[in-house]
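hiii, so i know i said id send this last week but things got crazy w the move. better late than never?? heres the sequnce for the chain we talked about at the cafe, plus the structure i predicted for it. fair warning i was half asleep when i ran it
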Amino acid sequence: MLFESFELKNLKLKNRIVMPPMCMYSADTEGFANDFHISHYGSRAIGGVGLIIQEATAIDPDGRISINDLGIWRDDHIPGLKRIVDVIHQHGSVAGIQINHAGRKAKVEDPIGPSAITYGGEYITPREMTLDDIKKTVYDFKMAARRAQSAGYDLLELHAAHGYLLFQFLSPISNHRKDIYQDGKILLKEVVEAVRTEWPKEKALCIRISAYEYVKEGVTPEMMADAINSVKHLGVDIIDVSSGGNVLVKINAFPGYQLHLAKKIKDLTKLPVMGGGLITTLELAQYAVSSLQTDLVYLGRVLLREPYLVINQFKDFGVELEYPKPYIRGKK
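okay and structure toks below
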């Protein structure tokens, strides 16, 4: 099943393998893409990955995870982003982008968050967002979606995982507000509605979530499924399931450790899901899909080490894929 095609709205994937968004911290300080990004994403497309989702791309310069995040807060970011899309398409993969505001985890002088509660460590205590701040953030997500559409991405992913802003509103650990936004689902709903005014209804919209926080006071799969179910009628098509990131806690991570969370979210929302978590072999990826725990499986760190993993190992699964013609002499 790993090498079977997958179709959802406009998406036509040649296999079920996804490269998830992974921060590269390699843009210039104004958020512009450069030749590194072309090489990085292009090589994984050449390597046979079905869907490539670009790293967290900032909707606001004050919402960056780092000063070297890619940006999508200005129209003049679009040409550089389009170069990334074009190289992914040129080599036969589908191009997604994750748009994000880091909230209290932003590395800026004046971070904002749902409440004035620090993430901990060296992070600055954020300023509690005003209603105007929230309104601006919703607008920034909307405009980022417009720019993503202009750049030609096939899938748009909202980052509501790993302790960044949208997740901060959803977690009782980081959201102690006393107004309507005490219910973090309200902000998620407003963002999805705003994004859908710019992101065409025929194109797939994804939300990346942390389904569990690994502490009893935090988010559970049932809570996240409830949040997803409250917005899926607005045009949410697929869920990218991860975990953690909002609390400084040690996680017992092992190959496939998040797959059961993907299955839980799939069962509770009836939406297709992407699952993973330290998937280091295509054999484990095949199991994840064939056991119906996930519809798509993401391979992260292993694709950083081995960008041509897919084209070098597909024959082990009794399938034949089109091999990149320039590399035929190196085919096993």
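btw The domain at 6-330 is CATH 3.20.20.70 (TIM Barrel). thought thatd interest u
miss u guys!!
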